[in-house]
Amino acid sequence: MAAKDTDDQKSRDAEGETSLDMSQAAVKKMISEAREKGFVTYDQLNKVLPPDDVSSEKIEDVMSMLSEMGINIIEAEEAEEEEQKGTALPMLASAARLFLARASPKSWTGPDDPVRMYLREMGSVELLSREGEIAIAKRIEAGRNTMILGLCESPLTFQAITIWRDELLSEDILLRDVIDLETTFGDQMGEDEETTPVVAANVATAPSATTEDDKPELDADGNPIETDDDDDDEDEQANMSLAAMEAALKPVVLETLDRIADDYVKLSQMQDNRISATLNEDDSFTKRQETTYQKLRSEIVELVNGLHLHNNRIEALIDQLYGINRRIMQIDSAMVKLADQARINRREFIDEYRGREMDPNWLDDMAKKDGRGWKMFMERSPEKVLELRAEMAQAGQYIGLDIPEFRRIVQQVQKGEKEARTAKKEMVEANLRLVISIAKKYTNR
């Protein structure tokens, strides 16, 4: 009986090998036809590679080989016309079918399979409605506004804006390097009634995309003569279009930058008075001044938002802010380490240290304390303490703010960045959930 089972098994193995050989021959024929047409359909693939007879690994190998040969996998032959026109649906279907084919139950090895776990997690994400998309978009915008609000309180931001303005005037940089050109142009043309006539007039007087020298040469019959430059016409027109937008927007943007610089001079003065009143714990900064301060700050934020700064510029400002904050945190850590070595209670030390990072009288006041370790702290490494305090004072002078105020600005920027990042993550997950739901429809056809 055992011998018979063994013979049956050998017979089945032999049949499988024969079937596989026939599949390989059919694959070669299919590839030959696909090369001529430039595509192959899923029905043709299923005929030569039946899922019940051929392993998923072999199917993946064939698909990879087809992709390397430049052969597209489509739903049906009539869909090829749509694909040639740039229709996205067949491409989405192909990607979805391939993704779910690789994630089919046959390839799952257990409950901890990463693909299965990912699909289960994505299945818990709700599909977005129109209202949901709007809500997430508003959260992204709110997070960005929070970041901009924090950046607008930093003198470093306005130092950078002043530098960009000077570089624009001297033509060391292009306007497109500072702002999102198309977004700003669309806003100026569509929303701002005061600047729209100015921008439109600038567009009308901007250099044309074609000149006399650019006109094509004609042969004896009056037909244009083809040249090697014909392929670059669209790129040149696009570049000229950007140049025209820059020429139209540059006066308006420079005027906005001037207004920002002027308003910040006023804001900086009020900021100094506000910080001084806070440190002295008096009421010298009145409620009326606070209202004026908040109004002026809102106006500056609105002007900066209206510019639609290029993302690279915003990231550069944030990186600069975070870089200085990292150095300040390193100084904090070194001071706390010295306090730990002197066996000062850490909480007590932080309470005495925070808020007085730039106070010139701090060392004298700490020398008078009778608590445990303070005398050792002052006597053990006075040179190191003085060096760290000097570095902190230098950082404060560079940023133009008191250290506690700078910490608050950094926290605000971090909060806005986190809110925007979280909302973007939710948007991406919802879009992936939509792709998977579409993919399942195609696999069930």
UniProtKB/TrEMBL annotation:
<feature type="region of interest" description="Disordered">
    <location>
        <begin position="1"/>
        <end position="25"/>
    </location>
</feature>
<dbReference type="InterPro" id="IPR007127">
    <property type="entry name" value="RNA_pol_sigma_70_r1_1"/>
</dbReference>
<dbReference type="GO" id="GO:0016987">
    <property type="term" value="F:sigma factor activity"/>
</dbReference>
<feature type="domain" description="RNA polymerase sigma factor 70 non-essential">
    <location>
        <begin position="155"/>
        <end position="394"/>
    </location>
</feature>
<dbReference type="InterPro" id="IPR050239">
    <property type="entry name" value="Sigma-70_RNA_pol_init_factors"/>
</dbReference>
<feature type="domain" description="RNA polymerase sigma factor 70 region 1.1">
    <location>
        <begin position="23"/>
        <end position="84"/>
    </location>
</feature>
<feature type="compositionally biased region" description="Basic and acidic residues">
    <location>
        <begin position="1"/>
        <end position="15"/>
    </location>
</feature>
<protein>
    <submittedName>
        <fullName>RNA polymerase sigma factor RpoD</fullName>
    </submittedName>
</protein>
<feature type="compositionally biased region" description="Acidic residues">
    <location>
        <begin position="214"/>
        <end position="236"/>
    </location>
</feature>
<dbReference type="Pfam" id="PF00140">
    <property type="entry name" value="Sigma70_r1_2"/>
</dbReference>
<dbReference type="InterPro" id="IPR013325">
    <property type="entry name" value="RNA_pol_sigma_r2"/>
</dbReference>
<feature type="domain" description="RNA polymerase sigma-70 region 1.2">
    <location>
        <begin position="113"/>
        <end position="144"/>
    </location>
</feature>
<feature type="region of interest" description="Disordered">
    <location>
        <begin position="204"/>
        <end position="236"/>
    </location>
</feature>
<dbReference type="Pfam" id="PF04546">
    <property type="entry name" value="Sigma70_ner"/>
</dbReference>
<dbReference type="InterPro" id="IPR042189">
    <property type="entry name" value="RNA_pol_sigma_70_r1_1_sf"/>
</dbReference>
<dbReference type="InterPro" id="IPR007631">
    <property type="entry name" value="RNA_pol_sigma_70_non-ess"/>
</dbReference>
<dbReference type="InterPro" id="IPR009042">
    <property type="entry name" value="RNA_pol_sigma70_r1_2"/>
</dbReference>
<dbReference type="GO" id="GO:0003677">
    <property type="term" value="F:DNA binding"/>
</dbReference>
<dbReference type="Pfam" id="PF03979">
    <property type="entry name" value="Sigma70_r1_1"/>
</dbReference>
<dbReference type="GO" id="GO:0006352">
    <property type="term" value="P:DNA-templated transcription initiation"/>
</dbReference>
